[in-house]
Design brief:
By secondary structure, the protein is an alpha+beta fold. It is built from 4 helices and 8 strands. Helix content is 25%, strand content 36%.
Length: 170
């Protein structure tokens, strides 16, 4: 049946084929397609199918534990910057803690607005270590502001992590 399916390097296709071979007790091919799925480089797939990655890791290695994976924790998800004058730049910092056993890698952070600049250390965060995400918000006019930072990482609980900056300007 599966001989007619073209094997592309798409995560979900390889995931489904791997699951098919698990159900037919063909362990060798199940592991082969699980490995193909996990090496797919599409960031959208990694974002959409994070829970499935641990399932594939278990197909490859029966001793796999999700608790060994990087786990991202933060001290806060909302930073209220208070009242800010127009044309003033304010800074915020979020501490990131890796509560998993493998190194945590922040792959990308996307700000919801060009008025927000983000900076972080672009090196792996070891187990138990803390790092910081720093954001600068430039308020150009009066009003209420709620800007988001979308944090993409290799953590199994990251879907992505959303950090918010709030401010008022009058």
């Amino acid at each position: 049946m599966l001989n007619n399916i073209k094997s592309e390097s798409y995560f979900y296709n390889n995931y489904l084929i791997s699951k098919y071979f698990v159900n037919t007790k063909d362990t060798i091919r199940a592991i082969s397609f699980a490995k193909k799925a996990l090496t797919a480089k599409n960031e959208l797939d990694a974002f959409l199918y994070t829970p499935l990655r641990s399932e594939l890791n278990f197909i490859i290695n029966k001793n796999y534990k999700i608790s060994d994976e990087p786990y991202i924790a933060v001290n806060k998800t909302i930073c209220d910057l208070g009242v800010v004058k127009p044309n003033e730049q304010v800074e915020a910092a979020f501490s990131i803690i890796n509560k998993g056993k493998k190194p945590l890698i922040i792959k990308n952070i996307i700000a919801s607005c060009e008025c927000t600049l983000v900076n972080w250390e672009r090196k792996p965060i070891p187990s138990g270590a803390t790092s910081f995400i720093k954001a600068k918000l430039k308020i150009k006019k009066a009003g209420l502001f709620n800007k988001n930072l979308y944090v993409f990482s290799n953590a199994y609980n990251n879907t992505p992590l959303i950090l918010s900056l709030k401010a008022r300007s009058f």
